[in-house]
Amino acid sequence: MAFTGFSTDQLVSLPPELFTAVLPQVTSISELKVTLHVFYRLTRQRGQPRRISWDDLAVDQLLQQSLRAISPLESPIALLDEGLSAAVQRSTFFHVVLPAPTESRWVNWYVAHTSANRAWVEEVQQAAQPLAPPVAQNEERPTLMSLYEQNIGLITPLLVEELRQAEERYPPEWLEDAIRQAVRSNVRSWRYVRKVLERWETHGRGVEIDNQKRPVESDSVESTSSYRSLFRLGSDTSDLD
């Protein structure tokens, strides 16, 4: 259907760096669409800092319609996570996880990368509680989420619950060793770590991963971390060594 024209001459004002520094580097359609839509939502807000949550974006029907146009076979939520995580990885947006004021859960917030917002992010991160549930007083091991961020990559909203379930399911030393094995093998993905843990659970901790190559599908929630290009959906196989 042909576009019939804009309804007003009052065009949306966007920072020039978006066009001179960000968009020339963007190659993903999902990142492009999500980035522009987030700016559209932010420009309609008042007060500071202008921010938008994952929850709001996930139920945005206009954004879902836009993302479905990329591929009818892929979930709009997965494409949202893909595009938003890529924008955070590029530092177009800051991602802050804060406790909800009235609920016992965490909220993922996104703000544009400005000097004022950078100062706000640093302030709230210093004041906020840790993302992961607190460990026992006599337990000095880092949480799985901190280990993942330090060694694997960005934790996206779709991955948070899976990491929490893994912490409840496996001993802390298993989690540390599985992540260490992923780093040694240079296969920095949660799917690889999960395969290691599942094999240990089935065959015993002392059984090493064999040298047989196994096809591994990519996880869309991890697709914008530093290893994204190695794990495109249906385009790669990973070695579980």
Structure notes:
The chain is mostly helical and 241 residues long. It folds into 2 domains: 12-129, Arc Repressor Mutant, subunit A (Orthogonal Bundle), CATH 1.10.10; 130-241, no CATH class. Helices cover 46% and strands 8% of the residues. The chain has helices at 16-22, 29-43, 54-58, 61-68, 76-89, 115-127, 144-151, 157-169, 172-184, 190-203, and strands spanning 52-53, 93-99, 106-112, 213-214, 238-239. The strands form 2 sheets. Strands 1-3-2 form a 3-stranded antiparallel beta sheet, sandwiched between helices. A hairpin with a 6-residue loop joins strand 2 (93-99) and strand 3. Helix 9 crosses helix 10. The longest helix has 15 residues, at 29-43. The termini are far apart.
